[in-house]
Amino acid sequence: MTALANEISHKTQIITEYLSSRGLEAASFDVNGLAKFPIPPQDQIPFRARLELASAAKELYDISVGPKQDLRDLAWDRHRLVHEGLTAKVEAMNGNLPIGVLNLRRLLRHAMTNRIFCEKTKNQVGHTRVSRLLLKDEPLRNWAGFVCNDMWLPIANTVEAMKQWPGSDEPTETGVNLAYKHNLPWFDFIHQDQTLANRYNQAMKAHGGTSGSSVEDVVNGYPWANLGEATVVDMGGNQGYISMTIAEAHPALNFIAQDQAGMRTPETIGTVPDHLANRVQLTTHGFFTPQREVADCYFFLRAILHGFSDKYCVKILQALVPALRKGSVVVVNDGALPELGTASYVEERAMRTLDLMMQVTVNAHEREADDWTDLFARADNRYHVERVWTPERSVMSFVEVVWTGED
Ligand SMILES: C[S@@+](CC[C@H](N)C(=O)[O-])C[C@H]1O[C@@H](n2cnc3c(N)ncnc32)[C@H](O)[C@@H]1O
């Protein structure tokens, strides 16, 4: 405990000295406080110190409550999920309380133990930075809604799905299928319901803002400038927000962000700002039909292959072959499971949770560096994996693959 306390003190000092030397504030739960620390990843020492501080503080907290209570809390604290979903609703209730005052009070007071709302004077509820974020930050609110509302039952059904379909690699044999009693793959399921599809889209946007898998990591982690004037096909590009961010930074690049037809209906399709309209197109293409874009294309798959078991990834990579010409490049940016003991607690936990979520929704999994070479070789031996690398501080790897087949 003393060693941890010393580490916490040391890391805190690194962070506070960094902030005060630049006249910056720390993040705070105060309603007007900063929602995140103003320490960019490029400032490696304080950036890492903050991750290490969070890991050490969590470990010290866990030790101080002890294993027995820690385990009890782990189950007990699922209550957190209830009120995170409630926050937005309270705002909309406008004095009309279908759940009754007593229930509202108990939910709010429990929420406050997680720093959602505060009560400085008895019965006077105010916002904290967290509750205000839930109100104002649309992607983040949808992220909370997606996890709490849509994922809650599937998570609870996942072990049952594992027992019912042992070792399955089918996207129709998951906790989602059991929870919602259907036999559709995940994306077909969400496209049936506009509200769910929109919530998922917004949630993906918020996921792109998390530490270690941010859109900045995509822009800075790959040498896009070396492509010169080129077109990048962003396969499964959702509403094009990754394409648009890279396009902003690299004016010589054009993007075709492909996605399923369900993402391109008048109700679901995203908006490309005017200044990018002639460089970023939102089009329709399914992974399992032969790819039709050829030309000088680079194919980019971000957060796609981790959503499919090996069996289906092989099919996706085979469907890409008709579009490939000698020297065509396929770039994958996807979760990187860290080697044992190489990541901080915060990063490791994020990746392990994502790995589980892949199981819950689609029976897929995150991959380690070696897995990529095996996967491309299984799809077609004319794929040559040039390199696999994980940018510093990122939890997502880049895999650069060159097509060696003839035209
Ligand atoms: C996890 S999201 C990743 C979105 C984006 N590439 C990113 O990095 O945030 C997966 C995307 O793949 C799309 N998708 C899923 N199945 C597909 C299919 N069979 N064909 C085309 N797109 C698909 C989904 O609609 C979704 O937008």
From TrEMBL:
Pfam family, one: Methyltransf_2
Tagged with keyword Nucleotidyltransferase: no
Protein's UniProt keywords contain Protease: no
GO molecular function terms noted in the UniProt entry: O-methyltransferase activity
Domain O-methyltransferase C-terminal: 181-379
Keywords tagged on the record: Methyltransferase, S-adenosyl-L-methionine, Transferase
Entry's Gene Ontology BP terms: methylation
UniProt xrefs under PANTHER family: O-METHYLTRANSFERASE ASQN-RELATED, PUTATIVE (AFU_ORTHOLOGUE AFUA_4G14580)-RELATED
Name of the featured protein: O-methyltransferase-domain-containing protein
Protein's organism: Bombardia bombarda
The organism's taxonomic lineage, starting at the top: Eukaryota, Fungi, Dikarya, Ascomycota, Pezizomycotina
